[in-house]
Amino acid sequence: MFIARDIMSVLTITVKRNQTVKEALDLLAKHNVSGLPVIDDEGRVVGVISGTDIMRYSHLKQVLPKTSGSFWILPYCESDDIVSIRQGFDILHRTPIEMVMTKKVYTVSEETPISDIAKLLIKRKINRVPVVNQNNRLTGVITRADLVKFMAETET
Predict the structure, then answer these.
(1) Can you give the pTM of this predicted structure?
(2) Distance of alpha carbon 21 from alpha carbon 28, whole angstroms
(3) Which ranges constitute the DSSP H helices of the chain?
(4) I want to staple 100 with a disulfide (CB 3.0 to 4.6 A). Which of 57, 126, 142, 155 is the partner?
(5) Four-point Cα dihedral 115, 116, 121, 124, nearest 10
């Protein structure tokens, strides 16, 4: 039986809740990932921040002015709209991660069977699950992509 330890990513990029959304965005873009575990000073998982969380928060706080019925910014904006957009991004970038992150986090241990992890991701409609030790300290992360790669590489 394969377990979390067999497929988890050990070199995990993390952020802390007092860092800014801009710092999280920079890491997401730099490492081409869609989400990051949020840890406290002891390395315990306290949340997850994802591109979806940031987009949802941006929409709630109306970071981008609605310039069309489809919520897309029209290619020809008034200068007032450009100023408003810049101000919205400035506010978003300074926002602490704690205000945006998902606080309800599902975690697994290194001994959790991969089949249970797949079921958890599907049932909870999440894209990643932090792997923690008995002290709830982060030891790795498993994403849907990790599971797909594992299934593709596994011989029958």
Answers:
(1) 0.82
(2) 10
(3) 4-7, 21-31, 51-60, 79-94, 114-124, 144-153
(4) 57
(5) 150
Q: What is the CATH number of domain 4-153?
A: 3.10.580.10
29 vs 32: CA distance, rounded Å = 5
What are the tens digits of pLDDT across the range 104-148? 999 999 999 999 999 999 999 999 999 999 988 999 999 999 999
* Distance from C-alpha of 47 to C-alpha of 15, rounded to nearest angstrom: 10
List the beta bridge partners of residue 138: 132
Cα Rg of the chain (Å, integer) = 18
Task: Give the count of beta carbons closer than 10 Å to the beta carbon of residue 106.
Answer: 16
Average pLDDT along the chain: 86
What is the separation of C-alpha 4 from the centre of its chain, rounded to a whole number of angstroms? 19
Amino acid 129 reads: V
pLDDT at 25 over 90: yes
Q: For residue 63, which amino acid is it?
A: V
